[in-house]
Every structure is written in C-alpha cells, then in structure tokens.
Specification:
alpha+beta, 3 helices, DZR, 21% helix, 5 strands, DZANK-type domain-containing protein, three-stranded antiparallel sheet
Amino acid sequence: MQTCSRCQTQSPDTVTLCPTCGADLREFSMTMVALRKMQANPRVSMIRLAVAADACPACRKMHGTYPKDQVPLLPTAGCSNGLGCRCFYEPVLTEIYP
C-alpha cells in the first residue's frame, strides 16, 4: 500500500494516480516525498533500503545501502507480497548532532 502525501488516501502499489485527489503517486506518495527530503539533506550521506523480515524475493534483492542518487524507487517492481511492498528508506547520517 502507498499513501498520498496530499490527501492521505491509501492505494495499492499498482495505482499511479491517487483516486481521491488525482496526485501522481510516483511523485507525491509519502515514500517518495520522504526520499526526496533525504536526498536534499546534506547530513544524509547514503540511503539504506530496508525490507521486512518476511519480504518477497524481489524486495530482498533490493535490500542494501545506496548512494543518494542511485536509490531504487519504491514500491519495488515485481513485489509479490500480498500486503504490497513493505520496504522503506532509512537515512545514513554523516553526523548526528550539530
């Protein structure tokens, strides 16, 4: 499931336009908005793609740490989990405190 950052409507991973407000979920899903913020943050050196313990093979293959400009997009293509892609991004920080 993916959530629209504009109206909070949840939609299946295969939907590209929010059924409520029409936003392009490839740009305005909560996951994509979070990724863009991490990419813009100078304290974030890399981005880790984390997967659930019961992740499908497609998601397990994507698990890892990536340079900010090479992060695979979510939802993972080919995800076969019945609940939808449950992968998420985690920042790898260069410094924790100012």
